[in-house]
Write a structure and sequence with these properties.
five-stranded parallel sheet; two-stranded parallel sheet; Rossmann fold; 2 domains; 328 residues; 14 helices; Helicase, Ruva Protein, domain 3; globular; alpha/beta; 13 strands
C-alpha cells in the first residue's frame, strides 16, 4: 500500500502543533532542559517508561511533575524507601466488618503518569510488583488482575552516586525502561535564570493538552514511514553490540559482556518514530536513530570488568558503534 507522504506530513504538522505549546509551558518552570523534556514527551508518545539519572537538585522530580501538570492527566508520585511494601504501590484488600467482605483499595500506581522517586531505594518485592505494572500494564491484588489506565507511564529517578541504602535494579527491570536519560548541570546562563525564577513563587503550570491530543498523536506516529534501509541500520547497530567482530569492531569484543536485547530494536524504532513526529516529519531518517540511540541503548549494553578498569562507559561504546556502522 503506497503512502501519501505529503498528506501524512501535513497531518503531522497540524497535529504536532501542541508540542511547542507544551514545551513552552513546561519551560516556564524547567530552564535549560529541553533535551530532557523532549525525551519525556517521546516516552509518553511511544508508550515507553523513562529512567532519569542525575545528581540531587537537578530538577528531575520537578520536570516530571511539571510535564504532568501541562497534560490533563492523572498523576501520582511515589517516594521509594527501604521499608516500602508492594501494597503501598499497587494497593491491597481491606476488610469491611459491616458486610464481612474484602474491598479493593487501589494504590497510587493507578494513574496515567507515575513518578517513582529514587526508585533504587526500594527492595526486590516492591520492584517485582512495579515490574508487572510496567510490562503487563496491570497489577494483581489478591486473586484478581486489574488493568491500569491508558496511557500508563512510569518516570523513575535515581541518584548515581549515593549508594547507601539502595538496591540495584534487576537487569530485567532496567530493560523495561525505553529510555535512560542523563540529567546534567545547567550552564551558567540557565542557572542565573533558575536563580531569578526560583527565588520567587514558582510559576503555575497550566494544562495545555489533553489525553485525547496524546492519543491522536500516537495514532499518527503509528503511520510514520520507516524505510527498509533504516530498519537494517537499526539491526546493524543492535547486532554489532552482540557480535562486534562481524562489524569490524574487534576491539569491542573484550569490552561488551552482553549486547542489547530485541526490546532495544523495538524501542529504538518506536522512539525514532516519535522523535520524527516532534520534528514534524512523516518518515524516519538515520539521524533520528543516532539522536535517540544513546538514550535507548546506554542501559542495555553491559560492560566487562576490563571496560570498567579502563574507565569506559556504555556511551563511549555506543559512540564507537555509531562511528563504525555505515549510515544508509
Amino acid at each position: 500500500m503506497a503512502i501519501d507522504m505529503d498528506s501524512l506530513n501535513q497531518k503531522i504538522l497540524q497535529e504536532s502543533v501542541f508540542v511547542s505549546k507544551l514545551l513552552d509551558e513546561v519551560s516556564s518552570v524547567i530552564v535549560g532542559q529541553k533535551y530532557i523534556l523532549e525525551r519525556m514527551l517521546i516516552g509518553l508518545l511511544a508508550d515507553g517508561h523513562i529512567l532519569l539519572e542525575g545528581l540531587p537538585g537537578l530538577a528531575k522530580t520537578l520536570a516530571v511533575k511539571s510535564l504532568s501538570s501541562a497534560i490533563h492527566a492523572d498523576y501520582k508520585r511515589i517516594q521509594f524507601t527501604p521499608d516500602l511494601l508492594p501494597a503501598d504501590i499497587i494497593g491491597t484488600l481491606i476488610y469491611n466488618p459491616q458486610n464481612s467482605n474484602f474491598a479493593v483499595r487501589k494504590g497510587p500506581v493507578f494513574a496515567n503518569i507515575v513518578l517513582a522517586d529514587e526508585i533504587n531505594r526500594a527492595p526486590a518485592k516492591v520492584q517485582s510488583a512495579l515490574l508487572e505494572a510496567m510490562q503487563e500494564k496491570q497489577v494483581t491484588i489478591g486473586d484478581v488482575s486489574y488493568n491500569l489506565p491508558k496511557p500508563f507511564l512510569v518516570m523513575a529517578t535515581q541518584n548515581p552516586i549515593e549508594q547507601e541504602g539502595t538496591y540495584s535494579l534487576p537487569e530485567a527491570q532496567v530493560d523495561r525502561f525505553m529510555l535512560k536519560l542523563k540529567v546534567s548541570y545547567p550552564n551558567k546562563t540557565d542557572e542565573k535564570t533558575i536563580l531569578e525564577k526560583m527565588t520567587h513563587p514558582t510559576p503555575k503550570i497550566n494544562s495545555v493538552i489533553t489525553l485525547n491530543d496524546v492519543q491522536k498523536a500516537k495514532d499518527l506516529i503509528e503511520q510514520i514511514y520507516i524505510d527498509d534501509k533504516v530498519k537494517n541500520y537499526v539491526l546493524d547497530i543492535v547486532f554489532s553490540s552482540r557480535d562486534p567482530e562481524s562489524y569490524g569492531l574487534k576491539d569491542l569484543k573484550s569490552l561488551i559482556a552482553y549486547g542489547v536485547s530485541p526490546r532495544a530494536t523495538i524501542n529504538l524504532t518506536l522512539a525514532a518514530k516519535a522523535y520524527a513526529f516532534l520534528q514534524g516529519r512523516g518518515y524516519v531518517i538515520p539521524e533520528d536513530i543516532k539522536t535517540i540511540g544513546h538514550d535507548v541503548l546506554r542501559h542495555r549494553i553491559l560492560l566487562t570488568y576490563e571496560a570498567e578498569v579502563d574507565s569506559l562507559t556504555s556511551d563511549s561504546i555506543i559512540d564507537k558503534i555509531f562511528s563504525s556502522i555505515e549510515v544508509p
